[in-house]
Amino acid sequence: MARSARSVTRRSAMQIGALRGLGLSLPGMLRLDAAEDSLTKGRNAIFIFLTGGQSHIDTWDLKPDAGEMKGEFGSIETTVPGYRVCEHMPFLAKQVDKFTVLRSVSHSQGAHSPGQRYLQTGNRKIPSLEYPDYGAVVAREHQAPKGIPPYALLPGGGSNSAPYSSGYLGVAHGPFTALGDPNNKDYSVRALTTPEGSTLEELESRRRLLSRVDTAFAGADVRNAELTGMDRSYEQAFEILQSTSVRKAFQIDAEPAELREKYGRNTFGQSCLLARRLVEAGTRCVSIYNGGWDTHQNNFSDLKNTLLPPWDQGLAALIADLHDRGLLENTIVWCTGEFGRTPKINDMGAGRDHWARAMSMVYAGCGIRGGNIIGETDRTASEPTTDPYSPDDAAASFYHALGIDPHREYHTRDGRPVMIVQNGTPISELWS
Length: 432
Prior knowledge:
- By secondary structure, the chain is an alpha/beta fold.
- The protein has a single domain (26-186, 255-430), classed as Alkaline Phosphatase, subunit A (3-Layer(aba) Sandwich), CATH 3.40.720.10.
- Helix content is 34%, strand content 13%.
- The protein has 13 helices and 14 strands.
- The strands form four sheets. Strands 6-5-7-1-8-11-4-12 form an eight-stranded mixed beta sheet, with helices on both faces.
- Helix 5 (112-121) packs parallel to helix 13 (391-401), helix 7 runs antiparallel to helix 8 (225-242) and helix 11 (267-281) runs parallel beside helix 12.
- The radius of gyration is 22 Å and the shape is globular.
- It starts with a helix and ends in a 13-residue tail after the last strand.
């Protein structure tokens, strides 16, 4: 009954007079009211994806009474009384009062590919349709200043990269992919350089010629949505090449050395800093893919020595920096992987395997309440003991924070109507 209540919006429930029948209590209605009333006009997003699936039981959802399943790590206090996190997360422990930890997400997509697409789009993967990434939807809904990429994809370090796609929205809403390591001394973005031997003036001349050719064919029945999207992509590419603002945003070496050290002098930390600079410049969504979290072997040594230190420092610095600059109130930061890891430690070398029945994620910004710990799991972190949330709900919450209706209807190239998120309702507890 409670699950059904959360799947119906407050207004529709009132319209059909089914509040009591659906179990929608007055406190539940008030939480939804508060979520809507306190929602700031968030227009920017930083999406951090932990490719491979982070171990929830070793980070946000420690279980000291789980016997041999609890693992090797101890816990430390946070800025939220009574809530403790992994001892190898000292930076984030000091920032918990600025973000929400959601510990009761559960689903059934336990393989990497379907799990990744589910958590990157808010929709279960199906053969007949490719759903767009969050960044592609944000790029369509929120316009960036001229010459600034609306959607940027940055490297986050690690090994196993995840697929990304603008899906049925087409190439016009695909990401500006900034390859290279922003931690390198000679960091530059190849996409911002002109082809060898060409000048901006020559490229502009070619663009005008292409425009005349397009005009000549405008009346012919040879155009399609893909070509139109490519036209927009080329137009954006010219604008970005000519933009001084975007070049300035990528000049990460202009940041004080002390601040760069605060983020961590590594790929992930500097990508977080670069994401902040891009948001300041007007990019509407920055995605950072941080790999290596598929810890079937050496889970504890890899977490302790390789994975947790840069992630802990970089994410904590990003949230604190956005907060100090007044950017967190209109920028949502969402960090998640595709699933959690098994409570049982395997015999393959002290590893944890795929586990979709329970996972944790982090939200900050756009009116989301800091110091909020939502949901609980059982003694071994195997499954939620509170009403579980789905990746659909998580995605709907992300869009809601950005002022985007997650149930808005788009149309595919063949005219098929599709909602941005097919199922799911914004999680009101994020704002209450």
